[in-house]
Each structure stands twice: as structure tokens, then as C-alpha cells.
Design a protein that fits this description.
about 25% helix, about 400 residues, 25 strands, 3 domains, 8 helices, FAD/NAD(P)-binding domain
């Protein structure tokens, strides 16, 4: 009996395990998915929790409800991966020998990596929203905030969902405006980037929105330490930003066992070919979603677009055939801009976000790089589409980037 092993029961892991269980002969293959958690988190929903849009039941579901019939689900932490021996040892002592391995362990925040970030002010006047616990703890802090310096800081890139910090700022601006205290709040966005976003066209558009909303951008700010005794965030070049309430997007890193196994980069993201998603070190290992070191956004839509390519490539490899399916880095991101409006960006490895319509050229209904109410409803509707996908219902969106409907 051969083993197809998936590490991680997030979006990528659950989808891949289901797809493989459907096509592999159950008499010859067993499909196993391992995760340290029993709860599945709809992570895009964390953004809305501090502002009261979503509750716990909207974003937290039992993993078992998504695991396909015939897939063995194991709740345990991974203690060691030995790729040369095709072996994984779990913290409970179980050893799993595999024939094929898919790493889908995602990425996590590491506030302990920034001096002072967790000293004194953590979950008091310093919060994150990249975890459910952080987002839930931030909600009362936002509600009780009546004015002062409100700082949002990205410590270092890459991060999960790179537009989420901007969305959070835009939602905060709308929240404080409706509360009647916006004139009492200074909103500062401290980012290591030279502008609002990585892509110049999108950065210019989003920068104008920030300017219109009177949000100050402290660009090229590389956070070095936090002095919670003075409520100050300091950069390596000795700039200081005082804060009354700070929301941090700490350093993001992959699972430590991946670095220890020698298949991860300096941030523990698995080294893969960016088009085939196959490990560059071991031919029977693939990495999907946030766990891979590809130069694409770490976001749910990216996982959806890359899934079919990786799935077909694995099947071709199993059959001894050349891999002919190539992921182009396609990313599609709704960006909440506040007051029930959102914009939308669509890009890949080589194309910048451009203006136009999506998904149907000319018709849309979604506007690329335009702020519309229908874009906002598209963002909210994605939660329902997401859960359909997690239950195995295919969403008929083309995975490849297309210039159709865009204006270069």
C-alpha cells in the first residue's frame, strides 16, 4: 500500500487530499492528512472580527467537517520530516512513511522575533489580527478607543494576504468616522515598502485612497524594536513612531520543521519551482499555498488557482510523464476600502494589476482598481464560495491570468 501524505489541513491541504482521494485507487493508495489543529479557520474573515462584522461561528469550523470520505485525518504536531528517508515523525510517536508528500502547513506570525513586541503591551495596546485570538482580543480595544495615535505596522515581508493591512486601515477609518471620533484619531501606516503596495500601478491607486482618507504612510520603515514603556515603535534607521494603539503584522514564517529538514528557505518556506510547485530538492514533494516560497501572494485565491496545476502535475509525475501544467502566479484580491466599498486587483508573475472588468470582459460585474459597492459584496460573498470549495464543490473560474477585459 502506497501513501499520499498531506501535511496541513488548511485550504490547500484539504482540497488536495480530497482531489487525490477521488482519483487514486483505494486498494493501492491511502491518503493521510495531518494537522496540529482540530479547528479550521477562515482566515480572510479575521479582518472583519475587530469591527463586529463577523463572529466566531463565521470563521471557525471543525476540520473534520471538510475532510473527504476515505481520507485519514490525524491530529498531531509534526516533530520531524526526513525527506531523504520519505518519513515523517509525529509528536505522538507515530511514524508515517510516504511515497508522495504535499506540504500545506501555511505560515504563522512570530511577534517574538521583533525586540519588545511581546514585552508589556502585547494584547493590551498592541494587537494582531492575523490570528483568531488576536482579532477577537482586538475587538474590545477598538471599541474602547476614543482617540489618539493609531498605528498599523508591517514588520517584514512576505506576509499572508499582503493587502489585508491596507484593508484593516480602511475599515478602521470608516469605523472611527461612524463613531464620530475620526478627527481625534491619527492613523499611521508604517510599512517596509516604498509605497502602499508591491505593484507600482496598484500602489499608486491605493496610495491615493490613503491620501484621500488622510492616512499617513511611513514608507521604508523597517521595524527594529518596540519600547512598550514609552509606547514607541522604532526602526533600524532610528525613526520613532509613538502610538496609543498599535496593530502589528509581525514577521511571518513557515513551520520550523521544514527548515530543520533542509527543504525550506531562511523563513522556512519550501523551495519549489514557481510554475510546477514541485520541490527543487526532492521530486516526490510539492508545496502549496502559503507554505511555498513562490513569488506570489500568500492568499486563498492563489491557492485555488494553483491547485489544479499542482494536482495534474503530481498525477503526471506518478505516471512517469513530463509535467506540462504551469502556474503563472495568478492572484485575485478584493480590497475593502471602507463604507461598503471595495476595489479588486488581478495580476500574475509578469503582469501588474490593471483597470478593467472581471470576470467577464466589458460586462464585469466587478471593477478592477475601481471602488464599488458590488466589489464589496463580492468580498463578502467569497466566504460562502470558500466553504463550498472546502466541501469539494468546484468554482468555475479560470486558473490562468487573462488580459481580456483589461486596459494596459
Amino acid at each position: 500500500m502506497k501513501t499520499f501524505l498531506v501535511l496541513g489541513a488548511g485550504t490547500a491541504g484539504i482540497m488536495m487530499a480530497r482531489k487525490m482521494s477521488r482519483v487514486l485507487d483505494a486498494k493501492q493508495w491511502k491518503v493521510i492528512v495531518v494537522d496540529k489543529n482540530e479547528q479550521h479557520f477562515y482566515q480572510p474573515g479575521f479582518l472583519f472580527i475587530p469591527f463586529g462584522y463577523y463572529k466566531k461561528d463565521d470563521v471557525v469550523k471543525p476540520i473534520r467537517s471538510f475532510v473527504a470520505k476515505g481520507v485519514e485525518y490525524v491530529v498531531a504536531e509534526v516533530e520531524q520530516l526526513e525527506p531523504a528517508e520519505n518519513r515523517v515523525t509525529l509528536a505522538n510517536g507515530r511514524v508515517i512513511n510516504y511515497d508522495y508528500l504535499v506540504v500545506a502547513t501555511g505560515t504563522d506570525i512570530h511577534p517574538e522575533e521583533t525586540e519588545g513586541l511581546k514585552d508589556g503591551g502585547w494584547r493590551q495596546n498592541i494587537f494582531d489580527f492575523y490570528t483568531y485570538e488576536g482579532a477577537a482580543a482586538l475587538a474590545p480595544a477598538i471599541s474602547n478607543f476614543n482617540g489618539g495615535r493609531f498605528v498599523v505596522n508591517v514588520v517584514e515581508n512576505p506576509i499572508k494576504c499582503p493587502v489585508a493591512p491596507l484593508e484593516f486601515i480602511f475599515l478602521a477609518d470608516a469605523y472611527f468616522t461612524r463613531k464620530g471620533i475620526r478627527d481625534k484619531v491619527d492613523i499611521i501606516f508604517a510599512t517596509p515598502l516604498p509605497g502602499a503596495f508591491t505593484k507600482p500601478v496598484a500602489s499608486a491607486t491605493l496610495g491615493k485612497i490613503l491620501e484621500r482618507k488622510h492616512i499617513h504612510v511611513e514608507a521604508e520603515f523597517n521595524a527594529g524594536m518596540v519600547d512598550s514603556s514609552r509606547n514607541v515603535l522604532a526602526s533600524y534607521d532610528e525613526r520613532e513612531i509613538p502610538y496609543d494603539l498599535m496593530v502589528s503584522i509581525p514577521l511571518n514564517k513557515g513551520a520550523s520543521f521544514l527548515g530543520a529538514a533542509g527543504i525550506g528557505d531562511e523563513l522556512n518556506y519550501v523551495r519549489v519551482d514557481k510554475e510546477t510547485l514541485q520541490s527543487t530538492d526532492y521530486e516526490n514533494i510539492w508545496a502549496l499555498g502559503d507554505a511555498a516560497n513562490i513569488p506570489a501572494s500568500k492568499a486563498g485565491a492563489v491557492i485555488h488557482f494553483q491547485m489544479e496545476k499542482a494536482f495534474k502535475n503530481i498525477l503526471q509525475h506518478m505516471a512517469g510523464q513530463p509535467m506540462t501544467h504551469h502556474f503563472d502566479g495568478h492572484a485575485l484580491c478584493y480590497i475593502e476600502t471602507g463604507f461598503e466599498k471595495a476595489t479588486l486587483i488581478d495580476f500574475d508573475y509578469t503582469h501588474e494589476p490593471l483597470r478593467g472588468k472581471y470576470p467577464v470582459p466589458v460586462v464585469g460585474p466587478f471593477d478592477l482598481l475601481g471602488e464599488t459597492t458590488i466589489n464589496h459584496w463580492g468580498k463578502l460573498a467569497f466566504r460562502y464560495i470558500y466553504y463550498l470549495m472546502m466541501h469539494g464543490i468546484e468554482v468555475p473560474l479560470p486558473s490562468d491570468f487573462s488580459m481580456a477585459g483589461k486596459k494596459p
